[in-house]
Amino acid sequence: MEAVQNEKGDTTRGESTPGESTRGQISIHTENIFPIIKKFLYSDHEIFLRELVSNAVDATQKLRQLASFGEFSGELGDLKVTVSLNEEDKTITVSDNGIGMTADEIKKYINQIAFSGATEFLEKYKDKTGAGQADDKGQIIGHFGLGFYSAFMVAEKVEIVTKSFREEASGADHSGARWVCDGSTEFELSPADRAERGTDVILHIAPDSEEFLNKGRLRGILDKYARFLPVPIEFDGDVVNNTTPIWTKAPSDLTDEDYKTFYRELYPMSEEPLFWIHLNVDYPFNLTGILYFPRIKNEFRFQREKIQLYSRQVFITDEVKDVVPDFLMMLHGVIDSPDIPLNVSRSFLQADANVKKINGYITRKVADKLNDLFKADRKAFEEKFDDIGLFIKYGALSDEKFWEKAKSFVLLKNTEGAYYTFDEYREQYQVNQTDKNDTLVILYATDRRQQDAYVESARRRGYDVVLFDTVIDPHFINSIEYKLEKTTFKRVDADTLDKLIDKGLNNESVLSEDDRTKLKELFEQALESKSLTVSVEAQPTDELPVTITLPEFLRRMKDMSALAGEQSFYGNLPMNYNVVVNANHPLAGKILATESEDARKALIKQVYDLALLSQNMLSGADLTAFVRRTVETL
């Protein structure tokens, strides 16, 4: 027989006989749990101030609601929360003039860990507040009842001095209760001499937490967590919060300047946003907020700490990856949802059904907003596309639902500055740029100036060239090819034009087969490079005598490896270029006719360097030698 202490502290016995099942009760020792709660309730100890201020806000909101229900007829007065610092006494005090507590309520709400007064209040008045939710003007923040104990993460002793609004209404001049605890499971509860309703929570800061006995430190915490709480928060003589941020207001009551002013309040060092979306939904979840579209530079990195997540105007986190899709992380703004608790964890965000619904809703709203802007003012949308194209393309390749909406407003910009949707581009160019397999070939350049010779060559043939010069474009092209029917993308310098858009036609060569073979051998001997593959092809006479290309597949793999910032298999491959000699160019015949080996090699080197120069690949001593040879022939 073995003695076991049950949850009431009584001793019970349970028999343990081999082969028989037994029943019993797990013994729970609060003295073992309490140190864990004190030290590990939250990973960041500064959270204590958010929790205590939120509790104080709840106390004032409850009083305001009771007044609206007709259960409090006294004067509300100037409802506020005050945070006070006494560096000499080493105390921090959070005060409110809200609902207050009686001694019995202290026993109920404070001495029972995890008993939530907020939850009980909402349940009691759910018929008046609507399905357990407080109205917008009196929203109740707390839920779990553990927040108060965060005080012990930084305090060696905590006092509560409080007086209930009911005791105040009874006419008692000096009544109230004092609760004192030193962090153990023992407490002292005694009468207190308090004249007015409300609560003071006094923290006697522990030696290892004296960093919080600093005005600047406390103000920073309040700026972070209490910036938009719905009740005035006073610290060091100033009100530190905006109680009515614009996301709590109706869009019809706001002007463009209101949105811009709020953006400057959030991001004082940022450029003015392009436009914004005001979020407001109450079913199947509750969510409000504002998302701003910043001017996105041509760089692919997530700018963390740009979207802020709130719950009933209390800041939770700026790590919102699981609340919004990855591609929306480039936006700025605020999301506020009471369906996300204050003590949110990463695992909660990943598993919660409401969070997944919020994620999908925000994606849909962003896509709808962009589509509306595109339809309402095409010209204005095109003017913004250089700033938002990176964001839209990332969304299109990473989120299938976004792509379904975005494919009607993702724009292709050609090298002449004209914009097309995919459908418009196909309609405009499919006749001339469809190959023998009935596939539309979209030629593109990544650098208009560097690839100018190739772009101009394509334009002479009546082909259009699209500009893909953002860092995300290699991935975008690779992804989008799988989503578009009978469409392929080829970089304009990836091969000769006749191979890029193969219509099944063969140009006649002015050279015999023997001459073409000999010309190939002469180039291989003169260039002496194992990284070059030489071929001789019949091309129009107005094309370059020599063209240097890198196969499309290798270009894409290398570009994507560079974007990922890692050394991949393709990123480490040597640059094996194709050297294409134009058999129909007059210089081909001139090379064959040159008898002097040195003169022939110099001519081959000259036309090869010319091809390198057209790709911006000629530099250093090779460029100097090319210039010298050019001068000598003039």
Automatic annotation (TrEMBL):
Pfam families per the UniProt record, alphabetical: HATPase_c_3 (PF13589), HSP90 (PF00183)
Residue ranges, compositional bias (Basic and acidic residues): 1-13
Biased composition (Polar residues): 14-25
Protein name (Swiss-Prot/TrEMBL): Chaperone protein HtpG
InterPro entries (alphabetical): HATPase_C_sf (IPR036890), HATPase_dom (IPR003594), Heat_shock_protein_90_CS (IPR019805), HSP90_C (IPR037196), Hsp90_fam (IPR001404), Hsp90_N (IPR020575), Ribosomal_Su5_D2-typ_SF (IPR020568)
Family from the record: Belongs to the heat shock protein 90 family.
Domain Histidine kinase/HSP90-like ATPase intervals: 44-195
Gene3D superfamilies: 3.30.230.80, 3.40.50.11260, Heat shock protein 90, C-terminal domain, Histidine kinase-like ATPase, C-terminal domain
Span list, region Disordered: 1-25
KW Disulfide bond (keyword) present: no
Keywords: ATP-binding, Chaperone, Cytoplasm, Nucleotide-binding, Stress response
Entries under NCBIfam families matching the protein: PRK05218.1
Domain of life: Bacteria
Any one Gene Ontology molecular-function term assigned to this protein's record: unfolded protein binding
List of residues binding ATP: E51, N55, D96, M101, S116, G117, T199, R346
